[in-house]
Specification:
Layout lengths: L1 E3 L9 E6 L3 E9 L7 E9 L2 H13 L4 E5 L5 H10 L3 E5 L1 H5 L8 H13 L11 H33 L14 H12 L4 H5 L10 H7 L8 H31 L4 H8 L6 H11 L9 H7 L8 E2 L2 E2 L9 H15 L4 H13 L1 H21 L12 H21 L19
Parallel strand pairs: 2-5, 5-6
Antiparallel strand pairs: 1-4, 2-3, 3-4, 7-8
Helix pairs in contact: 1-2, 5-9, 5-11, 6-9, 10-11, 11-13, 12-15, 13-14, 13-15, 14-15
Length: 430
């Protein structure tokens, strides 16, 4: 062991691990046996296989090291973290961006692990959020469903591009190209029908009012060749396959989240939120809000807070804070949906959108939604109670009236001190 001298410590015995795909460098730092005022460190290399991680755990127990810190490197940290956690060791995951900015960092595997251990024992490493074992399984399913949904959207976009290539302007008339009417027309095209009148008669329900526009949009059907039909059939089969897989995943997710039905209903009560949005967000955060000190911390972790980055007169290049990309995707949808509702959140979203643009309105509404989400899940049994779309107008009128009355009393020579009366429910019992 090599003795080193350092500053007062936050932890007495620690281990820092620099993880790669196939191997890892682990450094332990413990009190020196010769002089307890000094530190002793040792670095060893281990494979990231099960046997290698168990050897690392035995080595840590031999030196009575209870805590391990590792950097969040891609997905390579997961098998090591989970295995050491199962061996009842305290595991801390360090944020790669936060650790990167600490001064004095070397960049080799062995020296990097030594530096991580030194920072950890001084309390300079802030731990990342790591889901519980139950929600690690749930989020695998919800993330897979989100990825499949994105892939299905890309296939639908390819469908539109293919029809445009064949001079068919169907998407300019139908709101949903893959609705009942659109799908029937595409199936007829694949079957060989090219008559615009016959194709337009496939319209269903409200789309029948657009039959003249459909005929005009389908006049270029003669450019739709057998090659287009073969490619379109392949794309539609892919969309159907993805839809079926999404349905199977949704059933599994419902079963996995059945014990947390109360939290799901709390999240669903917010404007713009549906069942799937609630499932996706709870899978990422878990139902225990004590892991986030405040709603602001949760919103920041989700990337729904402004990014203040400026040097002199020049602003930073990034426009928003990076956060959990799966929650960010959900909040982008729920913010827009809430903006269409007649609620306080909807009124606020529209107000910000008019003044500062839609992008900032989405971030601001998502920030509010995560704070409300944190408050709801922190208080079991509560539901979202809307203050009304005229909330800001009422607040403005109230403040104007209050200012006018105080000014009138001031003109009469009175000094006014305002104090809000306690709510009748908060008054002490007689």
């Amino acid at each position: 062991m090599q003795e080193v001298s350092d500053e007062p410590l936050y932890r007495d015995r620690v281990c820092g691990i620099d993880i790669g795909k196939a191997g890892m460098a682990a450094t332990i730092r413990v009190p020196s046996e010769k002089n307890p005022a000094r530190r002793a460190s040792e670095t060893r290399m281990f494979p990231t296989t099960k046997r290698g991680v168990l050897e690392l755990a035995d080595w840590l127990r031999a030196w009575q090291v209870p805590a391990v810190v590792m950097e969040a490197t891609s997905d390579y940290w997961k098998p090591v973290f989970y295995r050491l956690e199962a061996e009842e060791l305290e595991c801390v995951l360090a944020d790669a961006r936060q650790v990167k900015n600490l001064p004095g960092r070397p960049k080799r595997d062995t020296t990097d692990s030594q530096w991580l251990a030194a920072c950890f024992e001084r309390g300079s490493v802030f731990p990342c959020f790591v889901a519980t074992p139950e929600f690690r399984i749930i989020r695998l399913h919800t993330r897979r469903r989100r990825d499949l949904t994105d892939e299905r959207s890309r296939e639908k976009q390819r469908t539109e591009k293919l029809l445009e290539d064949a001079a068919i302007k169907l998407s300019s008339v139908l709101t949903d190209l893959h609705g009942v009417t659109g799908r029937e027309i595409m199936d007829r095209l694949i079957a060989g029908q090219r008559n615009p009148r016959a194709l337009a008669e496939c319209a269903r329900t409200r789309a029948r009012r657009k039959i003249p526009q459909l005929r005009e949009a389908l006049e270029g059907a003669e450019f739709f060749t057998a090659h287009h039909a073969r490619l379109l059939q392949s794309i539609l089969n892919r969309i159907d396959s993805i839809t079926a897989e999404i349905g199977e995943l949704s059933q599994v997710i419902e079963e996995l989240l059945a014990p947390h039905e109360e939290q799901l209903q709390q999240a669903e009560s917010m404007p713009g939120w549906g069942r799937r949005a609630a499932q996706d967000v709870i899978a990422e955060t878990g139902p225990d809000m004590t892991r986030f000190p405040t709603g602001g911390h949760l919103a920041s972790w989700c990337g729904r807070t402004p990014l203040d980055k400026q040097s002199g007169a020049r602003n930073g290049q990034r426009r928003h804070k990076r956060g959990n990309k799966y929650i960010t995707a959900v909040l982008g949808e729920t913010a827009v949906a809430a903006g269409k509702t007649q609620t306080r959140e909807g009124a606020r979203h529209r107000k910000i959108s008019r003044k500062r643009g839609k992008a900032k309105a989405v971030v601001a509404t998502g920030n509010t939604q995560m704070k409300v989400y944190h408050a709801l899940l922190s208080t079991p049994g509560t539901r979202y109670e809307d203050l009304g779309p005229d909330y800001y107008e009422r607040q403005r009128d109230h403040n104007r009236r209050l200012s006018r009355l105080v000014g009138e009393l001031g003109n009469l020579g009175y000094e006014v001190t305002l104090c809000r009366k306690p709510h009748p429910e908060d008054a002490p019992a007689a």
